[in-house]
Amino acid sequence: VLSPFLQMGGQEGVDERLRRGGLEFAITCAENDAKTVRKVQGFLPTIVPVALKMMTCVDENSGWATTSMEEDDEEMDAQIGQTALDRLAMSLGGKSMSGVALPLIQQGLSADDWKQ
Question: What is d(CA 103, CA 44) in angstroms, rounded to the nearest whole number?
Answer without folding.
Answer: 13
